[in-house]
Every structure is written in C-alpha cells, then in structure tokens.
Design a protein that fits this description.
Length: 813
C-alpha cells in the first residue's frame, strides 16, 4: 500500500493525475449511461448499446492508462510502440464487451456478477499489461509479480462490486455510485500495477523532451505528442459520447412518455389496437389481451398474420401490405387462444411509431354485432308469437323449393290453413288465451309435418304449409286430413273448452300455378271454396275456381262503389193478415242494379258483403232507407228489415236503429228486425244484449227462416223475439207429405203458446195458402200474394185492396 501511495505521490505529475482521474470517472459514468440505455432497449438494439458502452469504457481505460503513464515520471522519456498501443485499446474494448455480455447470462445474480466482474477486472489488467508492453524505456523494466497479481485481484473485486451494484442504473445516484466503483477498479488496477514496475536506467540516461512534440528518435510516439493527443482525443470522445448519450436518453425519455400516453389511451379503448412493423407485433392494448385470451407480453414479438384464422390470412396480408393509404375495413376472422374463431373488422393505417414507420391496426370484435344481426334477421323472418317462419321467410323458402322442384321434376304442395270462427275463440279466451291457442295449434301442425316441410304463420289465424309431394296428391290429401283432425282436438283453458276447427285450401306446383304468387293465390282460392261449401274441410284447387275468384274480386270492387253510386235499391214484399187478408206490413228486400250485370239478387252479393265486411254499411243503408220509406205509409203497416249476423254482432246496431227511427220519424213499433238463428248460436250473451236493447226501444224482432237452423225450438223459450217466420222449405212440402203438415202445425201452436206471431213465407199456391190458413197461422207472405216490388212514388208497392179478395176467397174455402 505504501508503495502505491509513494508511486502516486512521488512519481506522478499531479496535474496529469487529476486529468487521468477525470477521464476515468467520465468514462465510467458514460459507460453506465449507455448500459442503462441498453437495458431499456429491445433485444436487437441492446447489443449495439452494449458495444458502444464497451468502446467508451475501453477508450476511457486506455486514455487513463496513457495519461497516467505520461504523468509517470515525466522527466523520463518513454516511447510507445504504435501496434501494441492500439492493441491495448482493442483488448480493453473487447474485454469490457465480454464482461457486459456475461452480466446478462441467464445465471444467478451472484454468478453473473462474479463472472462479469472477473472478465472486466481481467480485461482492465490485460489492457494495462499490453500498454506496459508497448513502452520502450531507456533502461530495463522489471516487474514485481506478486504486486501485479495483487492489482489484478483488486481490479476483479472492485469490478464485481460494481456489477453487484449495477441493478438500477436508471437512477442518477446509483449511476454515480457505480461509476465510483468502476473508476476505483480501473485506477486500482493501474496504480497498483504501476507500483509493480521499476525501471533501471541504461546508458542513454534520463533524457527529456522539453518541446513535447514529434516522434522520438526510435520512431515511437513521443511524450509531447502523446500527451496532447491522448488527452485531447479522450476528452473529446468522452464528452461527446456523454453528451450524445444524455441527449439520447432525454429523447428516449420523451419517447417513453409518449409511448406511455399512447398505451394509456389504447388501454381505455374497447377496440383492439395493435402496432406492428413488417408483421412483427410491437404493441397491443389490454383489449387485445382480452380478445386473444393471452397477456400482452405473450403477444408482443409475434407475427401479426398468426393472429388470424387460416382462411383470413390472405385478407389480413392484403391489409398489411397496403400502401400508406388508409384501407376500407375488412371483415376477417381471428383465432383466439381457446381456439375459438372470432369475426372482426380490421382497419389498418400507416403510422410513425416512435420515429419508425409502422402500421396501426384496429380490430373490432364483430361477434356481438353478428349475434345482433342474426337476432334481427330471425325477428324479421319469424312470427313473434309462435316462432314460426313468417310470410317473408315463406317466400324465401318457396323460391328455393320451387326451383328445386323444377330441377328435379317433382311437385310441391302448398296448404293454406285458416281457422274457422277464430274470432269467437278470441272472444271466449281473451287475447292471452287466444295466443296460447295459436301456439298450441302451431305445435299440433308442426307435429304432423316432416322436418323438410315449412310451416309459416302468415296472418292472425292463417298458416301455410309448404311440402314436397313425394307420391301423389292422395298423400297431400291424407296430410290435410291429419292436420284437420289434429287441429280439431279440444283445447281447454281456465275451464273454457273450445273445439277449434279449420279449413284448408291446397294448390300444387307446377300443376295449378307457375310461380309462387300464383301458387299462394290458388291455395287461397281453394280455401275460400272450402270455407264457402263446407267449413272444416279441405279442398284442392280446380281450374275454374280462379274464374270464380276473379269474378268475386271484380264484384267486390263494384260492391264497394255500389252505395256511393246509388246502385242499391229496396224492393218490398207484403205480409198479409191470414184472418183479415189485410196487408199488415212489408219486408224490405235488397237489390243491386248493376250497370253491366243488370239486377243482382241478394243471394249473389250478400254472402260476399258478409265476408268482406261491406254488409255493415250496406245493412245500415237498408235500415235507414226502409225506415224513411215506411214513415210515409199508413200507420198500421210495419216494415221488416233483414239484418245479417255480422251486422247484428256490431255493438252499435241498437244505436244505429234508434238513430234511423229518430231521423225518419218512424215509430219503433212499426219496425221489425229479421234475424236468423245463426245469430243466436254464436255469441249468445252478446246476442241477448243486442236483442234486449232493440226490444227496449219498442222495435220488434222476428226469427227468420225458422226451422232450418239447429235446435230451433229450444231457442224460442230462451230468446226474446216477437215473431217467427216459418221457412219456405216447409211451406213448399205442405201437401206433399203428412209430416210436413204436422211439423208446420206444431211450430204454429208452439209459437202461439209462447205468445209469438207466426208467419209462413214462400206461399206460392192457393193450396199452400189454404193449408197455412187452416193451421191458424197469423200472417202469410209469398209470390202468390205479392212479389217483392219497387216503391212507386212513396206509396206502398201494392195496395191491400188488390190482394184482399184472393185471400178472402182462399179463406172461404
Ligand atoms: P229472406 O229473408 O228469407 O227473404 C225472403 C226471400 O224469399 C226473398 O228472396 C224473397 O224474394 C223470396 N220469396 C218471397 N216469396 C217467395 C215465394 O213465394 N217463393 C220463392 N221461391 N221465394 C219467395 P230475396 O229477395 O232473393 O232475398 C234472399 C235473401 O237475401 C233474404 O232471404 C235475406 O236473407 C237476404 N236479404 C235480402 N235483403 C236483405 C237485406 O236488406 N239485408 C240482409 N242482411 N239480407 C237481405
Ligand atoms: Ca227475411
Ligand atoms: Ca226467410
């Protein structure tokens, strides 16, 4: 130790010593700054930073050595061999690099530091040795080997300490501390090493080079030149590299700040953000980690294309290789960690990422949107109540089915199912109950069908079945039969039992129609025929049906305009008193004077008016017109107006009748409303309410076509009516068989027993009249006594006097 101190204090120029120490400290600090930078860089960049650090340290150690050498016995003229001098720099630099690399080996911390420290200490000592070997002294150089070994040990120990302390170099204090340890290492090796040297002067004696310039006589580097050169170069190199490093650090700190800001922003985004450079992923946000089910670190450094499903890779590649122009988002699929394929929308954009060109990619998870789209599509194509396909989907399926039928030369059947009396079911069960009924009926239909058949709900109580015909029409007929039977099973809800019924119209493709619209129309026509003829049955479409339909459509169109165009008129048929032969009233019977068809009878348009609902305005017109006309007749004559079931069910019928009476001035007791038994069977409670409301006004009610309905007699006692009209079918058979006469007599007697007026209609022959009179009937009506005729100038169509004699004569028989 004393030797070392002596070496420093006695043999060195103190100014140069200070310079050497400064260079050493500066070099160490710069080195550590570069090492810290290397630690924050990516693996590929890190090596470059380490190499730079090694070069700076190497140069620094080298400079220290030579400046210190110059400070060593300045009076002594020492030359340096250029080759070895340069080699010494190389030794220091490469040794340092080796040490730095060792410090990064995947070993325990202690092992790493020991190895790196040993390498560094050894390389400093080696540099020192080569530097000494480069010296040419005027005498003999002798070395104290134990002292030299001691210098090596000191160097290694201090270097190990420096590495052990170099874990958090980003902090300035730590960096200064470690710089101190390193500098101590370098200075220690140097000065202990120098104290191991001694020079025995030879013949040349001690010579000086006062000018300090130029080469020495031996061709080595002279003292002055070396002093100036090494000092200046070292300082310049060190100061410049330190400045550059600090500047770089400042910039990179800013970049880090920017990067942090970028990360913060992208971490809040719900969209997946990826930054890649030539396909290598540099950044991924938290949403990306969530989508891919992997931590961000696992995604960094991966290939961008690997994120995509195999099928989407070409698309992703196309997006990747776009120019700087932003591309329209592409719909692709990524494969996440669980193996699930997720649909995404990918948008790429070229960006400048921390000073280098890169691509920013936004991925939007489309799963939810796709699910929503599917839900919307399902809702758009299905009926919300039953979940069955709706009209829209039916059309789509029809297109496919008809096309495949064309291709395979097979037939397709379309069954149009319509529930009968659904309104009644609705009234009985209520809206909720009716919904349940529809759901149940849909299930019953489904149960009868094959998976390949389509069952669609196309209206409130309308279903359509589309199925391939595998054999022939008989197979379809069998299916229709099964469907009707299934639908007809009783349905019970909250104690209410309903026996649903339906009618089915069937059309076959391509026999009955050439396209889907025509096929639907044909099935609809067949359905209407089924409903018209026998509700609760099925019918196949037949040629000619469409002609009927066509006419019907035309008729319906004309009928809508009939009231407006004043084409309707009432004819009046008289009702005679059987006893006096006096006309006691008239029945108003509607006619339609059609501009082209001529006179259309009610049988040809009343059913149509019923089906289309046109009966409501037409019936109202009949009631109002009849009241106005009758108000002009003699007070003893009444007017009977027919009211159809649909019209009767209108809740405002009593109100309308009251208004007709009020506005015409006809007393209520002169108006008779004729209803049929059908009215009473359905909606019994409502019917009773309406009847009561009418009768409360004083209006009388007749039961028309009596005897043709269901269990007619039982109704008489339960319904409040004033009159029954024996249907003309009974009158016609009078005289033909015994039973008919008996039946008519029974009806008359029963009516009288209940206090009702009894009318016989359809009396065509004097015999019929005689028999009716004989059985005690109250009134008669028929062609024999008077046909329905038009009104002439406000007068009743036929004057009683004209018919009275006939009646009386019949009476007299
Ligand atoms: P309805 O109420 O049974 O009317 C009696 C029908 O028998 C009338 O036929 C009448 O012309 C016909 N008739 C009368 N006497 C005889 C006879 O001796 N022999 C034969 N064969 N027929 C006779 P019309 O006028 O063709 O009316 C047919 C049906 O149309 C009516 O049957 C009625 O149900 C309905 N109707 C007529 N006018 C109206 C109306 O204004 N409103 C409603 N809702 N229905 C009406
Ligand atoms: Ca009638
Ligand atoms: Ca009748």
């Amino acid at each position: 130790m004393m030797r070392v101190v002596g070496c420093i204090t006695n043999q060195h120029d103190p100014r140069l010593l200070v310079l050497a120490a400064c260079i050493c400290l500066l070099a160490c600090f710069t080195t550590l700054t570069l090492v810290a930078r290397a630690e924050r860089s990516r693996a590929d960049r890190s090596l470059a930073w380490l190499a730079a650090a090694a070069a700076v340290f190497g140069c620094g150690v080298w400079s220290l050595h030579f400046v210190a050498m110059l400070a060593f016995m300045p009076g002594l003229e020492i030359d340096y061999r250029p080759g070895l001098t340069l080699l010494s720099i190389l030794v220091a630099t490469c040794g340092t690099l080796l040490a730095l690399l060792c410090s990064r080996l995947p070993l325990s911390r202690a092992a790493r530091c020991a190895l790196a420290g040993a390498a560094l200490g050894a390389s400093v000592a080696a540099m020192h040795a080569v530097g000494v070997a480069a010296m040419e002294v005027p005498g003999t150089l002798s070395i104290d080997r134990p002292q030299l070994a001691w210098s090596l040990c000191v160097g290694i120990v201090l270097a190990v300490i420096a590495f052990l302390r170099s874990d958090r170099l980003s902090g300035m204090r730590r960096r200064l501390e470690v710089s101190g340890w390193l500098a101590a290492c370098v200075l220690g090796v140097h000065f202990i090493g120098m104290s191991a040297l001694s020079i025995t002067l030879g013949a040349g004696g001690i010579g000086t080079n006062p000018t300090g310039s130029g080469l020495s006589a031996q061709g080595g580097l002279g003292y002055g030149m070396l002093a100036t050169g090494v000092g200046a170069v070292s300082l310049v190199v060190l100061v410049t590299s330190l400045a550059a490093t600090l500047m770089e650090q400042h910039l990179s700190d800013r970049t880090m700040l920017e990067l942090q800001r970028l990360r913060l922003l992208s971490s809040i985004s719900r969209e997946v953000m990826i930054i890649h450079q030539d396909g290598l992923i540099l950044e991924v946000n938290a949403a990306g980690a969530t989508l891919f089910g992997e931590p961000v670190e696992a995604l960094l450094g991966r290939q961008f294309l690997d994120l995509f499903s195999v099928g989407s890779r070409p698309g992703a590649y196309a997006q990747m290789t776009h120019g700087s122009e932003p591309q329209a988002p592409a719909k692709l699929e990524v494969r996440v960690r669980s193996g699930r394929i997720v649909p995404v929308e990918v948008a790429c954009r070229a960006i400048d990422f921390i000073g280098r060109p890169a691509t920013a990619v936004a991925l939007v998870d489309q799963s939810e949107r796709r699910r929503d789209a599917e839900t919307i599509r399902h809702l758009a194509q299905h009926d919300a109540l039953t979940g069955l396909p709706n009209r829209l989907l039916l059309h789509e399926r029809m297109i496919h089915m008809l096309a495949s039928s064309d291709a395979q030369q097979t037939s397709v059947a379309l069954l149009h199912v319509d529930l009968d009396r659904f309104k009644t079911c609705n009234d009985l069960l209520g809206d909720h109950g009716a919904d349940l009924l529809l759901g149940e009926l849909a299930a019953r239909l489904t149960a009868e069908l094959r998976a390949s058949d389509t069952l669609a709900r196309i209206g409130g109580d309308e279903f359509v079945i589309l199925c391939a015909v595998q054999e022939d029409a008989r197979q379809v007929a069998a299916l229709a039969g099964r469907l009707l039977q299934a639908l007809g099973q009783p349905f019970e809800l909250d104690g209410i039992r309903i026996e649903p019924a339906a009618s089915i119209g069937i059309a076959l493709y391509p026999d009955d129609a050439t396209g889907q619209a025509a096929l639907l129309r044909a099935a609809g026509t067949a359905l209407r025929e089924a409903k018209r003829e026998t509700p609760g049955s099925f019918r196949f479409f037949e040629r000619g049906m469409d002609q009927v339909l066509h006419e019907r459509v035309e008729l319906e169109h004309d009928l809508r305009l009939a009231i407006e165009n004043d084409e309707l008129e009432l004819h009046y048929q008289p009702l005679f008193s059987c006893s006096s032969g006096v006309i006691e009233g008239y029945e108003a019977l509607i006619r339609w004077r059609h501009p082209r068809r001529g006179m259309v009878m009610p049988i040809d348009f009343i059913p149509l008016a019923e089906q289309t609902g046109l009966i409501v305005p037409i019936g109202e017109w009949a009631v109002r017109t009849a009241c106005i006309e009758a108000s002009k007749w003699p007070a003893r004559q009444s007017i009977a107006v027919n009211v159809s079931p649909l019209q009767f069910r209108q809740s405002n019928l009593p109100l309308m009748v009251a208004d007709a009476l009020l506005s015409s001035g006809l007393p209520a007791h002169r108006l008779e409303i004729e209803i049929t038994e059908g009215v009473l069977i359905t909606d019994t409670d409502d019917a009773i309410r309406t009847l009561s409301a009418l009768r409360a006004q004083g209006v009388r009610v007749s039961l028309d076509d009596f005897g043709t309905g269901y269990s007619s007699l039982s109704y008489l006692s339960s319904f409040a009516v004033d009159k029954i009209k024996i249907d003309r079918s009974f009158v016609r058979t009078l005289g033909q068989n015994e039973g008919a006469g008996l039946l008519v007599r029974t009806i008359i007697e029963l009516g009288h027993h209940l206090g009702l007026t009894v009318v016989a209609e359809g009396v065509e022959t004097p015999q019929q009249l005689a028999m009716i009179q004989g059985k005690g009937c109250d009134q008669v009506q028929g062609y024999l006594l008077g046909r329905p005729t038009r009104l002439e100038q406000g007068e009743p169509p036929q004057r009683p006097s004209e018919r009275q004699p006939e009646l009386q004569s019949e009476d007299a028989d």
